Amino acid sequence: MKYSEMPTARHLVSVASWTFITLNLLIWLPFLLLAAFVRFVCPVNAVKVLTDNLVDEVYRIATRIDGWWIERVLGVRFEIEDEDFALETLRPHESPMIIANHRSWFDIFTLQTLICRRGPMLKFLIKTELLWVPVLGWVCVALNFPRLQRKGDQKTRTRDLGIVQKASLQLGASPGALLLFPEGTRYTEEKRVQNGAPYRSLLRPKPGGFNTILLSLPDSTSIIDFSIGYEPGDDNCWRCMSGLVNIVRVKVSQTTISGMNGMEWLEDSWQQKDEWLAGTESSRK
Questions:
Q1: Half-sphere exposure of residue 40, counting CA atoms within 13 Å on the CB side?
Q2: Residues with Cβ < 8 Å from 144, sequence gap 6 or more?
């Protein structure tokens, strides 16, 4: 069923879902802004630890509420392949790096739901334009997410890589999982052709930010690699929020930075993702 063919009732469910998630953010936003303000006016370590703990707990509660809506109300089921038991062994105090392919805005809700159950807060590298989105932009400011301009000129790329490096260096100072989408944008078939990607269901990954992070983190840092797959047509986030999407498939693997060749590892990971996605698609036919 195409997006345009969705019944009116399902569009209303999507509206209700986004309203619920927005209200959930608004409820917790004052606590996040208060923590950010206190940290700004009193930048001492004891205050930072206290506000970090407050932000972490608020974030965790908010994502659990979103996860409850997605799984219990909308009925989305996450089919997980996790041979390394990466999700089961995650702990709130850890600071892993998260990478994933990017098919939909719903990827964010998927990763938050799966990671924040047992693990740390998920930190995003966001585009500057998101700051102008009501509520979401305010939350990003309160959480102090690193902001990238993502333009094509060399000056901007250098600036963005500097921000990525700073975010990486700060990762060990307070618990949190740093999320990177190496493709840099959501997948579409048109983008794949323009990108000249040698994959069937992925864009070519960009090594710049990934290599910068690798050089900035300790060798013992865990990398948790997510492959996210949807049924054909189900990667539309509005459709995901309508209750029409039953299954999101997720494959998880884990490794460490120690001795890693960034570009070689990334290309190998993307090849494996592409084969896995092709396998899940053929199994549905």
A1: 10
A2: 36
Report CA-CA distances (Å) from 221 to 104, 171, 264. 27, 10, 18
Output the furthest CA–CA distance in the chain (Å, rounded). 59
Main-chain phi, psi angles of 126, to 5 degrees: -110, 155
Name every residue whose Cβ is closer than 8 Å to that of residue 62 and which is 6 or more positions away in sequence. Answer: 24, 25, 27, 28
- For residue 122, give the nearest of 135, 134, 113 by alpha carbon: 113
Instruction: Say if residues 51 and 42 touch (Cβ distance below 8 Å).
Output: no
What's the alpha-carbon Rg for the chain, to the nearest Å? 19
Full-model pTM: 0.88
pLDDT along the chain (285 residues), means of 10: 77 96 92 87 86 87 95 96 90 87 95 90 79 77 74 69 70 76 91 91 87 80 93 92 95 87 87 91 55
